[in-house]
Design goal:
mainly alpha
């Protein structure tokens, strides 16, 4: 029988995802505080991080949906 574990992610993936979220949030805060004079670093970090962040979020949502369909819960 299959058992579903909640948050079954190893520590490295949690650390990497937390760093991506922090980079995204901190660059957004920096850009919000300085709307007229945005730092190049904040722009580069935002441009590099948001596609990865969105892909991880959408991928996990799609994975959960497929898992529930396979188990007959949808």
């Amino acid at each position: 029988m299959l058992r579903r574990r909640n948050c079954d992610v190893n520590w490295f993936k949690r650390y990497a995802l937390s760093c991506l979220i922090a980079l995204f949030v901190f660059s957004g805060i920096d850009s919000y505080k300085r709307p007229d004079d945005m730092r190049l670093g904040a722009v580069v970090v935002s441009a590099a991080v948001w596609p990865v962040f969105v892909a991880i979020v959408l991928g996990s949502c799609a994975g959960d949906a497929v898992r529930e369909i396979n188990h007959g819960k949808a």
